[in-house]
């Protein structure tokens, strides 16, 4: 795992966008897995700027979002469809035919629907670059604690902690969804490369456990230890509980000198 430590959120976002932009320029037909959440907003804004000012072309990019709340329509302001449109897709030259986000309004038959989402990923040739955030409880996607490390896209009940974390985004009194459709840990681990972002002190413990703790379904981000190409991009606060910070800094400098391609 490569752990990139950045002094603040702006630099974290710029670094993440630089890595994504490099991947898109290297392979304009890339298939990307996308995350929502407040952490990703700066990266999407920078990617939109690179599109506007430096002609970064997304017209041949295929995307699969990680998750969507069950019960929310694409027009609901807290839906991940809405988030993606507002923060990214409306600001770049995305081909809407190549964008995939789980449907929060499926009336039932979840297993068939989720199997078809997995099938669409396979048909697209698999995910080349998966972007992730991390929850306070260490979830990636909505793979809450005790999710199988082999799990695939499925309907998942959210923990109280996740529901409370998300309540602030909903109108007072509005019901926060209890469930989501999410890619599984097994789905995520099949991506060829993974980029995971974390910002702020609330994430410090989960980040330390994911990188330095034991591999456990109780903290699903720890499953990333199994993947050969994972890059964490962290701001100082999110990195603050890592025991090996000095080592990660040395690795960062040595990688820049010896194998700079690993940083792109
Ligand atoms: C979002 C997702 C979640 C978030 C995580 C962090 O699509 O899958 O795992 O990445 O909950 O969210 P923020 O960035 O809002 O703290």
Protein architecture, described:
This protein is an alpha/beta fold. The chain is built from 9 helices and 10 strands. Strands 1-10-9-6-2-3-5 form a 7-stranded parallel sheet. The protein binds fructose -6-phosphate. The site of fructose -6-phosphate has 14 residues, from loops.
Considering the chains and any ligands shown, give keywords for the structure.
seven-stranded parallel sheet, alpha/beta, three-stranded antiparallel sheet, 264 residues, globular, 9 helices, 36% helix, binds fructose -6-phosphate
Summarize it.
Helix 1 crosses helix 2 (41-54). 36% of the residues lie in helices and 16% in strands. The chain is globular, with a radius of gyration of 17 Å.
Structural class: alpha/beta
Shape: globular
Low-confidence stretches: none
Q: Give the ordered list of helices and strands.
A: EHEHEEHEHEEHEHEHEHH
Fraction in helix: 25-40%
User: Mean pLDDT, rounded to whole units?
Assistant: 97
Bound molecules: fructose -6-phosphate
Number of helices, where a helix is a run of at least 4 consecutive DSSP H or I residues = 9
Biggest β-sheet description: 7 strands, parallel
| Distance between the ends | 14 Å
Spatial strand sequence of the major β-sheet: 1-10-9-6-2-3-5
Number of strands: 10
What is the C-alpha radius of gyration, as a whole number of Å? 17 Å
Task: Estimate the strand proportion.
Answer: 15-25%
């Amino acid at each position: 795992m490569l752990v990139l430590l950045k002094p603040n959120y702006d630099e974290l976002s710029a670094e993440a966008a630089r890595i994504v932009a490099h991947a898109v320029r290297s392979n304009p037909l890339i298939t990307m897995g996308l995350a929502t959440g407040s952490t990703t907003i700066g990266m999407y804004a920078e990617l939109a700027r690179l599109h506007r000012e430096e002609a970064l072309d997304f017209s041949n990019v295929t995307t699969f979002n990680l998750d969507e709340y069950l019960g929310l329509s694409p027009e609901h302001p807290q839906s991940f469809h809405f988030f993606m449109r507002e923060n990214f897709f409306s600001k770049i030259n995305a081909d809407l035919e190549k964008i995939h986000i789980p449907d929060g309004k499926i009336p039932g038959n979840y297993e068939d629907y989720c199997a078809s989402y997995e099938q669409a990923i396979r048909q697209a040739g698999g995910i080349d670059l998966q972007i992730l955030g991390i929850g306070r409880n260490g979830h990636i996607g909505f793979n809450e604690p005790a999710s199988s490390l082999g799990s695939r896209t499925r309907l998942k009940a959210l923990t109280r902690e996740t529901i409370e974390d998300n309540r602030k985004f909903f109108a007072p009194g509005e019901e926060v969804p209890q469930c989501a459709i999410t890619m599984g840990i097994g789905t995520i681990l099949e991506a060829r490369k993974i980029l995971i972002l974390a910002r702020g002190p609330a994430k410090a413990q989960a980040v330390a456990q994911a990188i330095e703790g034991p591999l456990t379904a109780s903290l699903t981000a720890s499953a990333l230890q199994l993947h050969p190409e994972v890059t964490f991009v962290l701001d100082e606060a999110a990195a603050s509980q890592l025991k090996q910070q000095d080592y990660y800094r040395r690795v960062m400098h040595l990688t820049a000198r010896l194998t700079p391609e690993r940083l792109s």
